[in-house]
Write a structure and sequence with these properties.
Residues 169-185 have a biased composition (Polar residues). This protein has helices at 25-77, 79-100, 104-117, 119-147, 171-176, and strands spanning 2-8, 11-16. The chain is mainly alpha-helical.
Amino acid sequence: MTDVSQANDGETRQGGAGDGGGETTAEKFKSQFASFKSQASDKARDYAGQGVNRATDALDEAARFLEDTARSVEEKLGPQYGRYGFSAAESVSGFADQLRGKDIDELTEDVRSFVRKSPAIAIGAAVGVGFVLARLAKAGMGFEANESGGSARSGPSAAPAGPVGAPATSQAANEDTAVNPTFPA
C-alpha cells in the first residue's frame, strides 16, 4: 500500500508503509524529464545525421551537374571558361567531403562559432534558407494538388496566359469570349 505522508519543504515523498520514505515527486519528475530529454536528443541526432547524409548526396549531385556543365562550356567556349565550372565542382565536392567527415557535435560547434563570429551573415543565411524552404514547400504543395486532380494555381495568376499585349482577363472570360490582342502601331 502506498501513502503520501510527509511534506518536506514543499516536496511530497511517496513510499510504502515500511520503506522510510522514497523518491520525491520533484525527483521523479526530474528523472522522467531527463529521460525524455535524452530520447529527444537521440532522435534529433538521428534526424540531423539523416539530414547531413541527404545534404552530402545533394552536394555530390550538384558537383556532378557542375562538372557536366563545365565540360559543355569547355567544348563550346574553350578551356579557360570551363576551368571555372570545374573549380566550382571541386569546391562543392570538397564541402560535401568535409560534411561527411564530421559528426553532428562538430558541425554544431562549427555553426555556433560561425554565428558568434559573423552574426549578420548568419542571419542573412537563415533568411535565405528560410526563403528557399518556403518556396520548396509551396512547390511541393502545388505538385500534390496536381496529383490529386486539383489545381496547383489559384487566385489571379490561375488564368492561362494570353498573347503578348492582350488585356488581363479572368479564366471564365477566357472560356466564354475570344481575346483579340491589340498591338501599338
